[in-house]
Design brief:
mainly alpha; 109 residues
């Protein structure tokens, strides 16, 4: 990797970087809040797709899946509809089910 040393002139700090200072200055708090909301919605959709994909790869219905991993059916539905996002142990379990489904299901029995 090549290292580049630069000196920043305090009189012209905007001469460095790839941002558009006018656009940054024009960004409002409402714009920032909207982007945060969009990012959170996208994260929930990604988690919903992942949960649904794991369940379908296992060939289980929502009811069977909820019973096998000992999570309520409503929780599975909320995850798959993007209303809630699996966290902590549930998120880890989904990752294990995705990578090593036979071992994970055997351990859960």
């Amino acid at each position: 990797m090549k290292t580049i040393h630069m000196t920043i002139d305090p009189a012209h700090p905007t001469a460095v970087g790839r941002i558009n200072p006018a656009r940054v200055d024009a960004t409002t708090e409402a714009d920032i809040a909207g982007q945060i909301a969009d990012d959170e919605a996208e994260t929930l959709l990604d988690a919903a797709k992942f949960t649904r994909r794991v369940r379908k790869r296992l060939g289980l219905s929502q009811a069977e899946f909820s019973r096998r991993i000992d999570v309520s059916l409503d929780t599975i539905r909320n995850w798959e509809q993007g209303k809630r996002c699996p966290t902590g142990a549930a998120k880890a379990l989904l990752k294990v089910l995705d990578k090593a489904p036979e071992a994970a299901l055997a351990a859960l029995d």
